[in-house]
Amino acid sequence: MFERIKEDIKSVFNRDPAARNTWEVLTNYPGLHAIWMHRLSHYLWKKNWLWLARMLSTITRWITGVEIHPGATIGRRFFIDHAMGVVIGETAVIGDDCTIYHGVTLGGTTWDVGKRHPTLENNVVIGAGAKILGPITLAEGSRVGSNAVVTKDAPAGSTVIGIPGHIVDNRCSKPSTHRERVEQLIGFEAYGESEKCYDPVAQVISSILQHSRAVDNQLSLLLQELENKGIDVAKLDLPGINSTDFFDENDPLNNPNESDSNN
Question: Measured between alpha carbons, how far is 31 from 143 in angstroms, rounded to an integer?
Fold first, then answer.
């Protein structure tokens, strides 16, 4: 038991730079207290002392702000940072070295008896306020962004963000020239500037805008051919997208002369 406690304390130092000494961790980390109390309530639950286990869980919630059902299964070196508002359901399963932040819910989506709460495999991290709902599995090393709502399985090493949660594509690369950025035409250059990869929604927007540009170019060619044949066609003043509005003027990659010289 004492080895597990020492292991828990060490995991706090590994994951929270605000932790300064062992006494501070022992006395001021309610997430740690909640985990220790859960181990006792879980033991009572497995011994079929159900009411006593639930009562201990309720007292722990009053003291720490963390509600862990005594039936939940939790692995080693689990860390709840800031603690307050965390809810973990009865059939939840949490692997080793997982980390969750305040306001996280591992909840169910049905009143049916049986497995109805999430499973977190090893090394999963869940950001503040995220809701993981249903008997889904977040595979090893996956990450969930703050305030995301996840109702589907996440593969190993993936990052899930948004409402509803969707997996971020991590196979993209940052554009290297001004022209490449314009051609991607996210329209919101923050995506192009970010070191983070595009998510699927951004990629869909990019595809739509690229298609719109291609249609505009095709229509321009048709109008030019009609005018060359002496056919007068009325021209409408159509609004356009001024991509430079989304660029950082101090970024050398946003120099149009550079893009011309590269093509």
Answer: 20
Q: Are strands 119-120 and 137-138 parallel, antiparallel or unpaired?
A: parallel
Q: In a 3-state reduction of DSSP, which class is residue 254?
A: helix
Higher pLDDT, 245 or 51: 51
Q: How far apart are CA 222 and CA 235, in angstroms?
A: 12
Q: What is the per-residue pLDDT across 212-254, written as a single tens digit (0 to 9) for each?
A: 878 888 888 888 888 888 888 777 777 666 555 555 555 554 4
Each residue's pLDDT tens digit, 207-221: 787 788 788 888 888
DSSP 10-23: HHHHHH-TT---HH
Pairing mode of beta strands 125-126, 143-144? parallel
Angle at 96 between CA 143 and CA 87, to 5 degrees: 65
Domain ranges across the chain? 2-167, 178-261
| Segment 196-205 mean pLDDT | 61
Q: Are 42 and 53 in contact (CB under 8 A)?
A: yes
CATH of 2-167, one of 2.160.10.10, 2.160.20.10, 3.40.50.2300, 3.30.450.20: 2.160.10.10
Average pLDDT taken over every residue of the chain? 79
* Residues whose CB is less than 8 angstroms from the CB of residue 244 and which lie 6 or more positions away in sequence, other chains included: 254
In terms of DSSP bridges, do strands 149-150 and 143-144 run parallel, antiparallel, or are they unpaired? Answer: unpaired
Q: Between 110 and 49, where is the model more confident?
A: 49
